[in-house]
Amino acid sequence: MAAGRNKAFTLIELLVVIAIIAILAALLLPALAAAKRKALATQCLGNLRQIHTATHLYIGDNEDHLPFAWYDDDDPTENNFYALLSPYIFGADWDFDGDGDFESGVYACPARLQEPDSLNQSFDISYGMNAFNAVEFPGFETRKDNAVNAPANTFLTADVNQEYNHPPVEFLSSVHLGYKHNQRANYLFFDGHAGPVAEQNTNGVVLRF
Q1: Interaxial angle between packed helices 11-61 and 81-90, expressed in degrees from 0 to 180 and rounded to the nearest 10
Q2: Scanning 19, 30, 167, 182, which has its CA 20 to 30 A from the CA of 44?
Q3: Burial of 15 (0-12, 13-18, 19+ CB in 10 A)
């Protein structure tokens, strides 16, 4: 009986297999990238909801006064809402360092961390707060919580534009806000709900109150 010949892939068969794998990869990669972007946006929304909880704990401890977004002082360890909310997020003994803590825990949008560093600061800021919490911006005297007449529509916090990289939000345009989640920014409102908002859909959002 003749010995059977060894079976092996021909060059053409190998090329066909490689082509099929390449086609499958081309089909799957966009879906995987979209799933990753969605996961980053979901984590960002979770951060904003925790910032809302911290904000209301702060309000309860400060005679119903809102936190200021930022006031005109050179010390980043105390001139912004991140410093005010840090004890409620990281613990009562936490001293906000005004540098790396901007990129710590719930203060860091994962999509922001994938963007280039800002050219105007040594730290990268993910979120900005409503500048008009202040009676007169920039200032540290703030309005009370009951000044917010439409909490479900009134802007509290959102993703910041990478180039702006600053805590106070005075404009809902991309001058200040970062529409980085599928052309949307994650917005947090005073009533605690958070969700993606496109720049062209901001007409119903209250900033000045």
Answers
A1: 100
A2: 30
A3: exposed
Listed in sequence order, the DSSP H helices in 98-201 are 110-113
Residue 184 phi, psi dihedral angles, 5° rounding: -135, 155
Predicted pLDDT at 30: 74
Please, are residues 37 and 180 in contact by the beta-carbon 8 Å criterion? no
- Mean pLDDT of successive 10-residue segments in the chain (209 residues)? 62 82 79 77 97 98 98 95 97 94 96 87 93 96 97 98 96 98 97 98 97
CA angle, residues 50, 115, 181, in degrees to nearest 5: 55
The helix (run of H) or strand (run of E) holding residue 44 is helix 11-61
pTM (2 d.p.): 0.84
Whole-number Å distance between alpha carbons of 88 and 28: 42
